[in-house]
Amino acid sequence: MKSFDNTVKPYDVQLAYGKGVFLFDKKGKKYIDLLAGVAVNLLGYNNKKINNAINKQVKKYIHSSRWFYNENQEKLAKKISDVTSAKGVYFVNSGAEANEVAIKFARKWGLLQKNGAYKIITFKNSFHGRTIAALTATGQEKFHKYLHPLSPGFIYAEFNNLIDVEEKIDDEVCAVMLEPIQAEGGVWVATKEFLTGLDKLCKEKNILLICDEVQTGLGRTGKIFAYQHYGITPDIITLGKGLGGGLPLSGVAVGEKIFSILEIGDHGTTMGGNPVSCAAGNIVFDLISKPKFLQMIKQNGDYFLNKLKNIKSSKIKEIRGIGLLIGVELSEDAQKFVEAGLKKGIILNSVKPTIIRIVPPLIITKKEIDNAIKIIEDILK
Question: Of these residues, 119, 241, 307, 352, which one is catalytic?
Answer without folding.
Answer: 241
